[in-house]
Amino acid sequence: MPVDLPLNGCDYLMLGFDYELRRRGYAGNSCQIVLELAAAISPEALRRRLAELVKRYPILRSRPAGVFTPKWQALADSSGFPQVRVHRPTPPLGEQLSDESLAIRQGELFRFDLVERGGGGMEVVFSWTHALMDAPSAEHFLALVGREDMALPAIAAPVQRPKKPLKERLLLARKNVNQLSDFCQAAPRTVGVRRPETRPVQRYRVEKFSAEETAHVRAQGVKLCGALGDAQFHAAVAMMELHRLHERLGCPSPSYVLPVPVSLRPKGTVEPVFSNQIAMLMVQFLPAQLVTAATAVTTLKTQLAQALRDRRIEAGVAITELSRGLPFPLYLYILKQHGLRGEICSFFYGDTAHVSPLLTTFCGATIKDFTHVGATTPSPGIGAIFYYFGGELRLTLFHLETHFSREEMAEFAANLRARLLNP
Question: Which residue of 15, 19, 31, 213 has the fewest CB atoms within a 10 Å radius of its CB?
Fold first, then answer.
């Protein structure tokens, strides 16, 4: 695989979010996957497997570099990265791991933490910078690490999509700018920093649904969104409860903006492994559209259909690609100077659907449970990931403690669970 691979536009955007989080004292734009294993695994065997993969794919030991043409710059020596660390079980360890930064400028793009558990089990915490890859890629990479019977892909690098003529790209990018201007007519406002005395840390909680509850949630989704509308149902209901959270906190917003991730991969594929192959479709909800699940779903579906007709996926790709040549401070300054004043979204949302079927074992041990953990920026300071493991729905809610308390998030989680079951 060649070295010095260019970052695509979404990679660069994720790196911009990382820059902003670190600037404000947070750990950065890092995500985690937590595996609960039935048995302990060998740290040395894991290190050997990672050394093999790093040798084959230099991007795994590289750093972001370049100003006007950002790229992944492979490093011959990156101070022993990637790390595999072993921990004894301690009650606050999970929170500590989520608050530890990756040294991405020194070539640490991911890390493994092995936590010993009682009864011979083990927890594996895989942390990676979101600039390297998205969640489906991370699942596939975990399978590559944990299953030596898998054939290694011949190509595992960011894909360079054919570029449209500059004039067409500029016209497409203008669509995104115009849409944000339209949003300003009822400009969204997040709750902001409400607890300045609190340390800048992110916390998360996982809501698990039983098989029976999952079937009931899916039935409600089919009733409102159709057989393939799980993600739409999850998003619409989450926005309803977000609106109610704002009202409870005395921070009502004129509107709520939601970025809906859209995969750019050919259907059914996961390669390339190391790249963010996603774009964002932006939708806006007014409070009156969040009164019932039916109106919220209709609002979401109507705007997504219009976005597809207006080629907004291509517009989103165009504007991120054109922005790659801007230094991070200028990139973020432009976002903040727009009429939205940095309120680029009201809720970070992801829906990764079913966990990769390749993830049944890891390094020979059975995977008993699986957790996705995302990251959110100071605006909005709250987000969620929906996914299915073993056919059962999982929901990870994450928040910044400077914005929301744990008690507020516990109430939000309980209300969201109830709304999913009975919209």
Answer: 213
